[in-house]
Amino acid sequence: MMSVEGFLRGKVEKPASQLEGCETKPPVMRQEAERQSQEIPADKFYEYEKLHSRPFVLPESEIPEDLLHLHYSFGYDIRRGANLQLLDDRTLIFIAGNILILLDILTKEQRFLRSCSGGGIGAVAVCPSMEYFAVAEKGNNPHIIVYEYPSLRPYRILRGGTEREYSYVNFNHDGSLLVSVSLDLSYTLTLWNWRQEELMQSCPAASQEVYRVSFSPYHPNRLTSSGAGHIRFWRMTSKVNGLKLQGIMGQSGKYDTTDVKGFMELPDGRVVSGTEWGNLLLWSRNTVQVEICRKNGRNCHAGTVLPFALEEGNLMTVGADGFVRVWDVEMIDWTTAEDPSSRFELEPSNEMMVENNTCLLSVVRSSSSNSSIWLAQDSNGVIWKLDLSFSNTASKPECLFSFHSELIKGLDVSKRSHLMVTTSLDCSVRVFDFLSKNELTLIRFNQGGTALSWAPSSVSQSQDLLVTGFEDGVIRLLELFNHERLKTAELRLQQAFKPHSAPVTAVAFKGNGEILATGSSDCTVFFFLVGRKYCPMGFVHVPGPVQALEWSAHSHSENRLLVLCQSGHVVELQSPDPNAEVPTQTFLLPDLPRRSFRFKSIKSQIKREQELARRQAVKEKKEEEEELPPLFIPDPPSPLCCGFYSRPGQFWLSMGGFDAGFLYHCEFSENQEEDPNQRQDKPFDFVPITDADNDPVCSITFSSNRKLLLCGMSSGSIRIYPLQPGDHDLSSMRAFWALSVHDNQYGHLQHARFSYDDLFVLTAGDDGNIFSFCLVPAEEVQERLQTTEVKLPFPRVGLEPLVSAADITDPAADSIETARQKLMKEILHHETELKHSGIQKQLVELQMKFQQVLLENQKLPEHVRLIPEELRVDSFYQQLEKLKEQKTMEVRKQLAWEQECRSIVLRKVQRWFTDFVGGDVVTVCAIGSSRCVSTYRLPSLSEASPQVSAESGSDLPDGGTEATHNLHQSPAEAEEDCPRTAVSDSSEPAPGPSASPPSKKEKSLHKARLQLGDRQEENRRKAAERAEVAQAKFAARRQEWAQLYAEKPGKNYEDPELVQGILQARETIDGVKTSVMTLKEKKEELISLEVKIRTKQTEMNRKIVALRDSKVQLVSRFDAQIQQLQKIQQHLPPHLCLPLPTPPTLLPTETPERKLQCGRIAVEKYMKLREQRLMGAQQQGGAVSFLELLEKGMEAEERKGKQKDKGAETSTVSSSAVTWESNRTKGQEVWDKMEKELQKEEEIRLCHKQSCLVEQLESSSVTQFDAELHQLYEQKLHLNIQLKLMELQMLKVQQEVLVLKRFETREEKLQEKLSKCLQEENQVLLKLEECNQQLELKGAEMIDLKKRVRALTDAFQASLGENCHFEEFLTKVFTQTIKRVQMEKSPLHEEDSEEDSDDDLDGDDYSSKKEREASLNVRPKGCKPELFKNTLQLRHDRVELEELLVKERKVVEALKEDITSFQEKEKLVKSQRQAVEADIELMNQEKQQEMNKLEVIIPLKLNQIQLASKGPVPSDLSEFLLLDKMELFRMDEQIQQLQADNKKLNDQFHRDLKKRERLIREKKEKSIKVHELENRCDELMMRRFGRKVDLEALLTMPDSTRLEELEQEKIRLLAAHSDKMKHLETQVDEAQTALMKETRRNSNLLHTTIDLLEQTKDLKAKISSREKTKVTAVDKQPYLDHRRRQNQERIQELQVLVKRQRQQVDALKQEICLLSSAGGPVLPPLKTPNSPIPSAHAIRENTSKQTP
Fold it and tell me: Is-above-0.70 flag for pTM?
């Protein structure tokens, strides 16, 4: 291990190559030597008084700087995750807004350090030596200040680490280095050598917020940082150019990304971090090695887990569940080394529960060595003292301090003592003695407090009553008293009531204490009459949520309530009359007088007027002034922050948002008839607030003498303005004293109060801090503390034995108004029921009287008895009936709305409880067995089903397919299309000159034609015909070539059939589609599965219901037959009666719909029970017991009915027997024998009928029904299997839909990018095509212009005629290049003046160029004026055409540049499109990968499992491959088919390869032949014309008069020189003859020479043989070599001579052929330097010389 000093010297190892980091900035390294030479002395300190921030006071004001002294802090900023540090065993240090607090644990004394920047404090850290602590601040370019402890003197100041604020600081383990994290966009991590105030390294830490950074306790060159969704591992290295900090991000792999709020490094370098789901992650390098959990997969903690210490091989963790657990690190190390699994189960060795509902955020250890005492920060505002020794003598967790843990929503002070009460959203109300710095008592409820007020003395003389409002709209009256027995202060609930249905935002007592007003965010203000019990008086509606309430002062003539709404509305309400009667129907006070005001923004108008005043004061004299600031009205309107009365009908407002920066003086207008929501009221005055445009005033309060105005700002600062007495217009509100107290970002100062004696200022902000300031020095406060005691209310007599009042614990409880409305409705309903029951009683009595009258009438004699018609009073009865019908109609009309409402409610309930599940389940039971079959419960289809299924059509824009096809066209094909178009265009005949009227040039041409002879015209006509034939031939050939080019495939041409086959092969592999389906398709598949399941279930339900209906029919048929059988048995003797078969019955489960069918009996029973409940006869527990009672009564009625039916059956049988007996006894008296026989026959007939009926009852209908049910039961079993498989498929598809939803946003963005690229590429291609078309048009125009220029030249040559003496001069005039201006000044119209001066011209005067150019414009003497004028006109036309040609060339060049730029742009757009398509393909691959990871459940049988190798079936089937049997067969067949296809394709490939080689060979041969023909053609052109010409243009060129003249001149010259030509030909023939003779003679001589040479050779051989004996061997050899050499040289010379002569012969033959051709040029003879042919004599002499 390396020491930190060695590390600072640079003696460290090199970093790993994969790490990412950054090096020290060069300026810092360049100053390294200077810093080493200028080291800061160890005893240097700074002065705290010169550093810390001070209050802001205007220099010209007389306000003392020490106006307020910080007295005590009662709050704690719980938002900070690690806001707890220990300086020693008894001193805590934490941050509270702009103040650092040092708290003594034992005495609770506090010491304070203010921030030096005034912008707040970001973080604090304590050096391990406990001698120093670092305070990282916030603000503009904040510093890190290191203080020395316990002197609290600033020791070092670290500058330049950030521009905004620091979020975390930490020391290393020996205290030599400091690391900080800034809260900027890159969360910069900075390393400091803090003792020398040296910034060693700065590097971005992450892209998300960083929570913590710490040095490794085992490796000094390592750090670890963690934060939102990441953890990063750092390594420090030193290089030649300075320190380098390198970090590598942790890769969680398969684990979800989590916020890492805590971690601990193990001795082996691995890191254990916490997670949000409660388990631990073990990191090895930068990857997760193992996840640690408890046994059976339980989490280590419930919620976020935070490792905080490693003690003696044990890892300690805390969690959001309030537990502290200890884990054995050795077990983790051993297990991770042996167990390859990625999850390890481990039980904690020790654990401790701090308390229920605790959430520990950070833990710090006591400074004592080997101490087991730790202090923990709880998110519930508690600081715990924990003994983590886990021994038997360990103490229980101790609560050291308790604070508010949520936003403080209310603060008020006592009017007679130094007491303060606060309430917060943490559901607590706390009372403080801010003089003695103690918390007296607290009380908790189940809802958070939102408003608070201390009742004035007019309400409670003892000042013991507190009024608090809560989130659920409840108002609670709390009584504060001093417990006489316990000697402590307590709060007791006196009364609770709920006037509002939303959070209470304001409470206020009237000045005399008679009325309490409460306001809420439900836009209501409620009034209560103050008394022993607060009675509701009524409420009113206001236009917006209530922000504040203020009663008018005593000085006002009327008692009014000022209601300030958050929406900018202000309402003034007249105080309700306490003696007025309370309305019985509702508490709404609609007639309460009011005045309304709606704020309209005037800030932009104020700014404009200030700008005008400034300009007028400066008196800027500028021609163009800057525009004035525009008038602006914010929408939505700015929120209202606070306000207060100034005079009757006038008030001040402080606005937020855009209108911040001013206090606005407003008043109510006289016109109050306008709708409050439509009003637009402007303030009539305003007061500017310095530096408050973005810092609105949140709260305003006055001292008791109204000489000081206290403002709480949104930035957490307080301002105090001195005021003059009686200054209601705030004209003296100029100078102020300001101090930043609470957090500048989230510590909005919503509550500020003066104490009753104006000696203390109390503030509470949204950061949870509560500060008390005193306006006198601390010494005077101590004196007052010694002489003054807090006046707590005396205990009331008999108060202690009393219990607290009943509280409202249910947040959903009804408000006062809602309860009143429900009560009135119940009373009305009860009265209606009583009236109805009374009328029914009267009707019963009348019916009884009428029955009695009828009985008495029956007793009368018949002659005096009244008949029924006489008893009926028709007129009276009819009138009653009509009256009854009218009243019935009236009642129906009155109850029509309620009836419809109840019907709708019933339908909604049915739709919610029955329609959603698709009705009740029908269970059909068999008759002869216990088997039963039930219908499916059909839930309603999802709402997305019809929507998704109704969607159709493609999402691509119109023309997308065509655009895509055009975009995928290769550049080669596009380039080939252009020349084809040009060829096709050029093949069309150009419009002839006849289309236009004849010009001067045409007239001159016509005149020239007339001068030619008839023969020339005939020749011209024939030439034109030949040209037309040639042109037609060339056109046909061009068309043929165009067709060939059109049929020729491009370079990137692909066979569509092959392309389609490749696409299908890519999409399907072995018949399985690999392309990822879209989300829409998956949803449609899911819906189709759901619909399919629904269809099958519906079909099965239909069958079951049909079976149930058949059973119902069977039961009804049984009942009818049994009744018929019973009638028959009544006439049979008992011994002949057969036993009745057991009839089938219908169970309630078979007809569940009858449960919802309510009959009249059930309604009457319900009304009777309801009446009993209302009358109090039976005390029921609630609606549930009431319904149970009704159901029990209905069941009892059913049982009675069944018993009656059974009794009726038995009675029927017995009565039948009695009837038969009675009939028999009577028959014995009167019947005779014949009658007995008839009776016997009747019995036989009835017995037969009875037996038939019994057989019918016992027939196979029951058996058939049971068989059908059994068959349906089996069908349902098979259907259940299918449905389970389909449900599994649905589960898989749902998982796929979830996967696709994660890619939906990304896919939409990529598709949008692709559509944009396609659109842009289409536009570029269209522009490129347009440019190409324009280029082709311009090319055709240029060709036309060139033709016109040639036509002008031909016309000029024709106009000259034959033997023109001025041909040279006129040619110069015609070809003269002149400018446009000069051409316009040419004397075309001054021919008459030129004729007079023709005699004065002379050719010798053209000496200079200028004179020559001028002379060309003058007609020479003897030249015809018409010819000269025509020449000038032709020159004019030629110049115009040339200028047009130049312009067209420029346009063509511009078009070519545009085409080049568009082609480059096309390549760029195409590359972008390909990149987007690649991204889409990559995304599809990711989709497929995610799809492949999904698990699919498929049930299998054992016979479906096949093993490749013999052996038992293993228990783990994860390595098995799942295939469909038919799919397996198909794959085998496909493999064979693919093999055959592969073989076939290989054969075809070899044949195509041979064909390709043959075609390539033929192509080469044809190319060689074409090249030879082209060379031959070029050679012929050069011989014929002396240059390469265009044959097509030559053959199709129109005839020219000049050419005809040259032809005629040629004929004339040939005729004139024919004799000379014949003479020359004769000479040539003679010369050829002489040449041939000479050639023959030379040939003979050559043959002779050869013969002589051969003879010479023979002679030399003979001579050499003769002289052998005479010449020695030494002398002979050189001689022979010399002779041989001479002979060889001579032979070579002769061979060269023969070749030269042959060349001369060939040249002569060619010359003869050329001369013999008609019209060919006569070429000069070839001049070959031939040496003279030696004669035979010379040859002989040479031979003799060589021979000795």
Answer: no
